[in-house]
Write a structure and sequence with these properties.
Helix 3 packs antiparallel against helix 4. By secondary structure, this protein is an alpha/beta fold. It folds into two domains: 111 residues, Up-down Bundle (de novo design (two linked rop proteins)); 247 residues, Alpha/Beta hydrolase fold, catalytic domain (Rossmann fold), CATH 3.40.50.1820. The longest helix is centred in the N-terminal third of the chain and has 21 residues. The N and C termini lie far apart (49 Å). It has an eight-stranded mixed β-sheet, sandwiched between helices. Helix content is 43%, strand content 15%. It comes from Lucifera butyrica. This is Alpha/beta hydrolase fold. InterPro entries: AB_hydrolase_fold, FrsA-like, FrsA_esterase. Keywords: Hydrolase. GO terms for molecular function: hydrolase activity.
């Protein structure tokens, strides 16, 4: 993969050349990623005041990655102080703020550099502390063996939940993983579900820590997740699947292959032919190549031969469970026409294709409505 080096800051240049007159406006600093839109950040835990600080400081010439990490450090320190005082709810809020800031900071650093590793480990640590401070649920870190590796996630079970409580599995996408899906997970916990929020093969902690890669037969990794739920003594066997972005493709595929085990499936911002998203952004193609375990010189092979195999042709018709598809039209990555094929070919008697106008991705421009709609949709089918 192409190496991405740490950009020098104005302060770095002043230290290196103290007697020189430096025009700081000419020093390259990293900007806010275009894919981290205001709506996406708001949907997944960035505090509005932090967003305003990031925008102002980056516009003033500061480095985006460094600003986010500094704000994350401040939130994490505040959370730790509040926890020492016994203020558990406040500590949880600020640990989550920190985790969100650490998550978006290295978004455009594709390779797992020393800088990205440092920030990512801070994200995992602050998120772990936050998720265990909820009063309304039990949170358990999960490691599910798969092939020669293991998949990482969190099982969250409402307190006083019945032994047969239904479980919703959450699967993220190409660039957003389990920590980004946390607030959707909490919406489902509030609705009465247990949730298993997972990084599947090629995603998040499962990829970075365990070198477990994207697979064409992604349903095989998900088979291990389903087996884990079925063998878990504290939850029931009624299982729903929720996928965001690329995860929407993954869960639809899993619902097709394991129709007897999957009771409902929701795909938000997903696809029928996943390769469409790789046409518009070289960083997405590079990330997909790396997370598939391919070398940099295999990028063209990935584009033309490997990625096209991620499609639901001859598979979508096997889906029989209730199916919800939510999409934007227009969508900047995956056209509504693309995912409509999933809706048209699925054999489900109960299926809904809900389109939100606007040019955002994953319906982030209406995310409050979307997240509540999804929770209610699952509840109507699995809790009634």
């Amino acid at each position: 993969m192409r190496a991405k080096t740490k950009a020098a800051t104005a302060q770095d240049f002043v230290r290196m050349f103290p007697d020189e007159v430096i025009n700081t406006n000419q020093i390259e600093t990293r900007k806010m990623p275009k894919a981290q839109t205001f709506n996406r950040m708001m949907a997944h835990g960035i505090d509005h005041t932090d967003y305003s600080r990031i925008v102002a400081r980056v516009a003033n010439g500061e480095d985006y990655v460094q600003v986010c990490e500094e704000l994350g450090d401040a939130s994490c320190a505040y959370a730790a102080g509040e926890l020492e005082k016994g203020h558990r709810n406040t500590a949880r809020v600020f640990f989550l703020k920190a985790a969100a800031l650490y998550r978006v900071a290295p978004y455009e650093i594709i390779n797992f550099t020393e800088e990205k590793s440092r920030i990512y480990n801070k994200e995992l640590a602050s998120f772990s502390r936050a998720v265990q401070l909820y009063e309304n649920m039990k949170a358990e870190k999960v490691e599910i063996p798969y092939k020669d590796s293991k998949m990482c996630g969190w099982m969250c079970i409402p307190r006083q939940a019945p032994a047969d409580v239904p479980v919703i599995v959450l699967i993220g996408g190409l660039t957003g993983f389990k920590e980004e899906l946390h607030f959707m997970a909490m919406k489902l916990v509030e609705a009465g579900f247990a949730v298993l929020n997972m990084d599947g093969p090629g995603q998040g902690e499962t990829f970075y820590a365990n070198q477990c890669y994207f697979e064409v037969d992604s349903q095989e990794g998900h088979r291990a997740i389903l087996d884990y739920i079925i063998s878990h003594g504290d939850v029931g066997n009624k299982i729903g699947l929720y996928g965001l972005c690329f995860g929407g493709y993954f869960v639809a595929r899993t619902a097709a292959y394991f129709a007897d085990e999957v009771a409902a499936c929701a795909s938000v911002g997903g696809s029928y032919i996943a390769k469409e998203a790789l046409r518009f952004n070289r960083d997405f193609l590079d990330a997909f190549t790396m997370r598939s375990g391919k070398a940099e010189n295999e990028t063209e092979y990935v584009r033309h031969d490997f990625a096209p195999r991620f499609n639901l042709e001859g598979i979508a018709e096997k889906i029989t469970c209730p199916l919800l598809i939510i999409h934007n039209d227009p969508d900047p990555l995956i056209s509504a026409k693309n995912v409509k094929r999933l809706y048209e070919e699925a054999a489900s008697a109960d299926k809904t294709f809900k389109v939100y106008p606007g040019s955002d991705h994953c319906a982030y421009n209406d995310y409050t409505e979307v997240s509540n709609y999804v929770a209610d949709w699952f509840a109507d089918r699995l809790l009634s």
